[in-house]
Write a structure and sequence with these properties.
The complex is a heterodimer of chains A (137) and B (125).
Chain A lengths: L1 H25 L12 H5 L5 E2 L2 E2 H21 L4 H30 L4 H19 L5
Antiparallel strand pairs in A: 1-2
Helix pairs in contact in A: 1-3, 1-5, 3-4, 4-5
Chain B lengths: L2 H24 L1 H5 L4 H6 L4 H21 L3 H19 L5 H18 L2 H7 L4
Classes of the chains: A mainly alpha (137), B mainly alpha (125).
């Protein structure tokens, strides 16, 4: 239960962050950039989309799915084993993708976006929580 | 309240509301045990249904707070909801947590209130 509460909290942090970025993008406003001034360099780079889908939308979908799966696991509704496996696959894939995006910021774009780093840390923490927990079966 | 602290409080309260809603959905009957007998008598339907309705309200309030949409309305509902919880659950070991949550929703409400409402209650420059 503790691990699930942690996973849910991290998912909610992710939802809140991606919703903020989507709102700022749609209203053509600059996001608050507390560290450095290069958030936009990352957020408007050619790597900010996968095919035509913006990364913030993909992130939001990821966090919504993980939070819904966590809720279903807690309540005990649905095919629990399949949901648990789906959760692990999603978080592992998300963690690897976050490593790639962090590498892109560091080596290719050569600029840091604090929101992208917070999102990466959130997903890595979700991965660590799953690795350390026995309750996510 | 500074913008950053407001958002930290908002997300924290959102997680709390949604998670409590989920826990109530998991076992509504046991959460119904917190209700005072006089409050149970006032219910027009069973405890289980009342608790499921409460859980759904908690989740809706939490989602609105999380996505920062109609935040003032969610905070108003949360404040009223927590006052009712304090009234119908009586004084127990966990009452103090509800008081803390109530303070949080009031703080969010005051900070997110639209200008035209704020003007009614607070003298603005």
């Amino acid at each position: 239960m503790t691990a699930q509460a942690l996973l849910f909290t991290l998912s909610c942090i992710g939802i809140s962050e991606t919703v903020y970025l989507i709102k700022k993008r749609l209203s053509l406003q600059k996001p608050f950039c507390p560290i450095g001034e290069n958030c936009l360099a990352v957020l408007e780079s050619k790597y900010s989309r996968v095919f035509i889908v913006p990364n913030d939308i993909l992130g939001l979908l990821f966090y919504i799915f993980t939070s819904v799966i966590t809720v279903l696991l807690v309540i005990g509704v649905g095919p629990l084993l399949m949901l648990s496996i789906a959760m692990k696959i999603m978080v592992i894939s998300g963690s690897l993708l976050s490593v790639f995006f962090t590498y892109l910021q560091f080596k290719v774009i050569k600029a840091w976006c604090v929101w992208c780093l917070i999102s990466a840390c959130t997903i890595w923490l979700m991965g660590v929580t799953i690795l350390l927990s026995d309750s996510i079966k | 309240m500074s913008k950053v602290s407001f958002h930290i409080l908002r997300v924290g309260m959102a997680v709390t509301f949604i998670w409590i809603g989920v826990l109530i959905l998991k076992s509504p009957e046991s959460w119904g045990g917190y209700l005072q007998p006089w409050a149970v008598k006032l219910l027009p339907f069973g405890i289980s249904q009342a608790m499921i309705s409460t859980a759904l309200l908690d989740i809706i309030i939490g989602v609105f707070l999380l996505v920062d949409w109609l935040t003032w309305l969610a905070a108003s509902l949360g404040t009223i909801h927590l006052i009712i919880v304090l009234l119908v659950s009586g004084i127990s070991d966990i009452t103090i947590r509800d008081i803390g949550l109530l303070a949080g929703t009031i703080a969010i409400l005051i900070d997110s209130l639209p200008f035209y409402f704020k003007r009614l209650f607070i003298k603005l420059p």
